[in-house]
Please model this.
Amino acid sequence: MTPNLNMFSLEGKTALVTGANTGLGQGICIAYAKAGANVIGVARRSCEDTAAKIADFGGSFKEIIADLSDISVVPTIVEQSQKAFGRVDILVNNAGIIKRCDAVDVSIEDWDAVINVNEKMVFFLSQAFAKGWVKDNKGGKIINIASMLSYQGGIRVPAYTASKSAIIGLTRELANEWSKYNINVNGIAPGYMETNNTENLRNDEHRSEEILGRIPAGRWGTPEDIAGAAIFLASEASSYVHGFTIAVDGGWLAR
Ligand code: NAP
Model:
């Protein structure tokens, strides 16, 4: 029997993706628009590049400008997203920052900056959308972007590792509470991907060589590599997948 591939379609759905102006967030926006979704990108600066790439193939995209280090923006994001396309069906918590520094030198300000965007905002934005989904009983999808440092310790990134390890736990916790409302909470753990986030690493010849030598696939990942897992977790195809984080890492965790 031919499988019903329509289960991967996002036609008629609306997806909100944070950190949508560049990198993996941009890649996910493009993938969702190609799969038929109306896409809302949230970013602190304009998503014009993402908008242009989606307009090229006639996809549907709107942006919301918000600084995700400030928790007070949550109600505004919910309100503006409803004005843009009505009900949001899919939330991707992608925005994230990394600050590289020896653990003995990390400042309270830098610690808070990382935790606020990578962890606190992920919870409160998820809570804000889930409140509506629990009420209308029509379900929803939350996809949290984790990291290899959700599983490993890393070096010189203590706040980032703490936040990304928290993301895997939070993904499981929210799945335990919200699966019964037909809300799928899952994660994607990207490996080493070519984006701004890893620019310093890629420019460091020694670290870059070390990392590349450990990736079984033999190359860094790209935003396009995330598309398949992101569409799967946003679509009906994953309706019985709850609380799990999929690694898209070129085999890094298998080593
Ligand atoms: P990126 O190119 O640096 O993108 C990060 C995105 O988050 C940007 O759009 C950035 O906006 C946005 N952002 C950060 N702080 C924000 C704030 N306060 N308000 C609004 N937007 C904010 O990095 P990326 O690699 O695509 O990262 C996307 C996610 O994947 C992050 O959660 C990252 O931790 C995770 N990840 C990346 C890798 C990798 O190898 N690249 C690996 C594992 C996990 P601006 O452009 O304005 O800063």
Q: What stands out?
A: The CA atoms of residues 102 and 111 lie 12 Å apart. The pocket of NAP is lined by residues 19, 21-25, 43-45, 67-69, 94-97, 117, 145, 147, 190, 192-193, 195-198 (CB under 6 Å). The chain has a mean pLDDT of 97. The first helix runs from residue 23 to 34.
